[in-house]
Specification:
Layout (H helix, E strand, L loop, with lengths): L1 E3 L10 H7 L6 E3 L17 H14 L5 E6 L1 H12 L4 E7 L17 H16 L9 H11 L5 H11 E3 L5 E3 L17 H9 L5 E6 L7 H4 L8 E6 L6 H4 L1 H12 L1
Parallel strand pairs: 1-2, 1-3, 3-4, 4-7, 7-8
Antiparallel strand pairs: 5-6
Helix pairs in contact: 2-3, 3-7, 5-6
């Protein structure tokens, strides 16, 4: 079982889920490039294609197929795309809010003209290049920020995620491990178009579980039509949960997960 985290996250965010499944699966949680303890890219760009390549190479180099994939957000996009490219390699697939930003927020494809898309992307890169990362004098300061970002987290979850999500700088301060150039992924001038994403999803052969939080910005895949592109799809909405469903309602999520995995 491979677990793929979301953007600005890290592998250790899966610890609670992995602990529940380790008796039944050989669990591998990855740090995506530019996240956690993985190296940052030299190009300052983070295309989805590169993340998909990394996961594909992990599975290929370690001869892991067939695999079960559990994924969240950015990781969901990666897991869905890999499963559509190599459908024979995936036995079951779980994606927590991994279909993209949803129709309320944005479309999968950017409707701006090509020159405009490239201009926006270059300007975003310039902004990041002059940006000063936020530094915290102590772990408690970073913990406070993590708690602000998600009010559903318990004190234990906040401390755990912050401890494994920060690094110590030369001056003794702490900063987040993820590469802030990752943000420019959202304005990348080239990317998959809606019809191509739908083609990927339609090519997935294994059962898929799509999970969303009722308090999240993500749309319901049954209502927006995205579930119809999957040949074998179960869609679940979890109450009292936002984007990080597996953190916000861990026990409820595990219940749906165990039922789906059988």
């Amino acid at each position: 079982m491979i677990m793929i985290h979301g953007g600005r996250d890290h592998a250790r965010s899966w610890d609670w889920v992995a602990a529940e499944l380790k008796a039944d699966y050989h669990v591998m949680a990855v740090d995506l490039r530019g996240h956690g303890d993985s190296a940052w890219t030299n190009s300052a760009t983070y295309a989805i294609d590169e993340f998909v390549y990394d996961v594909a190479e992990l599975i290929h180099q370690k001869n892991l197929a067939p695999v079960t994939i559990i994924s969240h957000s950015l990781g969901g996009i990666i897991g869905l795309r890999y499963s559509g490219i190599y459908p024979e390699n995936v036995t079951k697939l779980v994606a927590i809010e991994g279909l993209g930003l949803g129709r309320r927020r944005a479309k999968l494809g950017d409707e701006a003209t090509a020159p405009k898309r490239y201009r926006n992307w270059i300007e975003e890169l310039r902004k990041i290049g002059t940006w000063e990362e936020r530094r915290y004098d102590s772990l408690e300061g970073a913990i406070e920020r993590m708690a602000e970002a998600n009010g559903h987290l318990s004190a234990e979850q906040v401390r755990h995620l912050t401890t494994h999500g920060t690094k110590q700088n030369d001056d003794g301060s702490l900063s987040w491990k993820f590469d802030h150039y990752f943000f420019t992924r959202f304005s990348a001038p080239a990317g998959i178009q809606p019809a191509e994403a739908h083609e990927m999803w339609s090519n997935i052969q294994c059962p898929a579980l799509l999970v969303r939080g009722a308090e999240s910005w993500a749309t319901d895949p049954e209502e927006d039509g995205n579930a119809s592109y999957f040949s074998d799809c179960t869609s679940v909405t979890v109450e009292n949960a936002a984007h990080w469903v597996h953190h916000d309602q861990l026990d409820v999520f595990l219940g749906h997960l165990r039922k789906f995995l059988g």
